[in-house]
Amino acid sequence: MVAVTLYLAVAVVTLLVIYIKYFGRKRKEGEPPIVPGHFLFGNGKAFSQNAVEFIHKSTARFGKVFTIRLLNQHVTIINDPHSYEQVCKERNFDFDAIQKQVNNNVFSFKLHDSKKMIKEASKKVKGQYLYANMQSFAHHLQEAFDASTESTPAENGWCKDRLRAMSSKTMFRAIFRTIFGKEKPDDVFEPMTVYKNFDLFHKYFNFLWLGLPIKLFPKACRALEMLVQMPTSNDIINRDDVSDYIRYSTQFMKAHGQTEADIIGHNLVFLHVNYNTFRVSYWLIYYLTQHPEAIEALVAEIDDTVRVKSETCDDESDIELSIQDLDRLPVLNSILNETIRYTSGVLMVRAITEDTAFTMEDGSVHNLRAGDRVAMYPPAIHNDPEVFENPEEFKYDRFIDAKFYKDEKEIRNPLLAFGSLCPGKRLAMTQAKWFIFNLAHQFDFQTEEGQTCCPDVKYYGHEILPPTNDVDVLYRRRENRRRIEFVHDRFVTFHCVLVEVNPYRNLQSYVL
């Protein structure tokens, strides 16, 4: 009996020591306030139920800077859009540890010499490679549009499908083939199979990122078993149309002795990043169908652009469109920005590498601990009524010639949906613009009357939120529509004559 009591006492003391070490926190002088939470789970439940509401309430109670706990991880939230640049420039706030956490916890691999590989590979989605990626994407998207209309039954000219199915058959398929090249007929690793399993696996991303073992989620395990059945690295890099990013990163990893499993894990990380562009396309279609004035303004802008372009080329040629042309369209850009504002759930998080006296934009100083995390949560800003009037409403023209303010001071970066270190931001935004431009140019589309959905706030933390439910979509070809061809910004061909276009003339600036 005495021995049992002794063992229990030792166990209690051990558990208490573990709790204090990994979960307990006593605020030190100069540190941000600590938001009270569950003794074991911390603030995880409140954050997962509705992160924006939780952060707004915490800000009202504790101020712009406060510390929360998600399981055993302490995260200091900086809810101040004016301090965005200070957060990005702070050397002690490191993203490398975060990407390693994602790689290890979610996709079970470690990247050798990660900073060098990411630095070099990231160049393959920018500059001249941006145009190569876009030409590939434009080709695959047109193929996907054609295949979707041919394979979907039509009634009175209207094709009917679920919106997730329609957007996956078009946008996801185009993105997938732009990354990995076109699959062979008998490949298991093909767009629709990958989409179905990746969509399921992605639901558990937040749990896995925090360190919960994947075995706790049988559905995620089964989905991952399918996702890892991709061709060998040699098979993929020998495809003529594989992206330069995948080719370079695969060759780099092979040269550094990484396994096939490591390469598969890395490829899934890259697919995860691009998956958010697919989700944006879903919401673009949905909100356009819910707001007739938005689609009317967009179609008018597109038709006007095509009319002007058609005046400079012969009747048989495709209409040539560049990134610069897309950037000049205020309605298109505003609709995209408003869609991202309305549906983003991204958590911009960094690891604190050293004890840091962090200075905010207003001059206030907060002591942050090494080993903790620091984060900004853009959706809390996107849903702040002081910044965006009536933030719960979707306003397609919100970003046209608009400025936004907080505390009576203009915000330099009101739309923080991609984070400061996203090398593929330009490509993702251009793909989304190209998708909706071509969809609205080639098709009439509408959702089934009476069917609605909204972003699922349970998934705050995902870059783009999934819908609470799916809806039916109807679409049909518009008559007498000329095809759109993607061309390089600098050179546009008219009647087979090469004309140099000044890339800076009349260039409008938009918040992206």
Question: What can you tell me about this protein's structure?
Answer:
There is one protein chain. Helix content is 48%, strand content 13%. It has 19 helices and 17 strands. The strands form 6 sheets. A 5-stranded mixed beta sheet has the order 1-2-10-7-3. A hairpin with a 2-residue loop joins strand 4 and strand 5. Helix 9 packs antiparallel against helix 11, helix 14 (260-290) crosses helix 15 and helix 14 (260-290) crosses helix 19 (425-442). The radius of gyration is 24 Å and the shape is globular. 41% of the residues are buried.
Give the uncertain stretches in residue-range form.
Answer: 2-22, 492-512
Q: What structural category arises from helix and sheet content?
A: alpha+beta
SS elements, strand count? 17
Radius of gyration of CA atoms, rounded to a whole number: 24 Å
Count the helices. How many?
Answer: 19
What composes the largest sheet? 5 strands, mixed
Pfam families: p450
Binding site for heme: 422
InterPro entries: CYP450_sterol_14alpha_dmase (IPR050529), Cyt_P450 (IPR001128), Cyt_P450_CYP7A1-type (IPR024204), Cyt_P450_E_grp-IV (IPR002403), Cyt_P450_sf (IPR036396)
Transmembrane segments: 6-24
